[in-house]
Please model this.
Amino acid sequence: VISYLFHKEKYYKGENELRFYFKSKNCQYNGDDVYLECNPQLLINKIKYSPYMNSGTKKLVTNLLIHKYDYLKNRISSSKILESNK
Model:
């Protein structure tokens, strides 16, 4: 699952990104995880969701992010798949 989440498809080649995922506090630490403290306003300029992400999940995550980081209010959108030129 991890390799699938962090593999970048050629469709998204124009997007510079940082991918991350959230783990429940109840998950067991397996030694491969890294926890970093950061200032989101310095690190995150905008957020783009996968075009395949469920709309209900997008809405939930967007509401959570804006509640915690109100500066993201107009900086969240969905990615578009680029058409390949053949």
User: Anything to note?
Assistant: The mean pLDDT is 77.
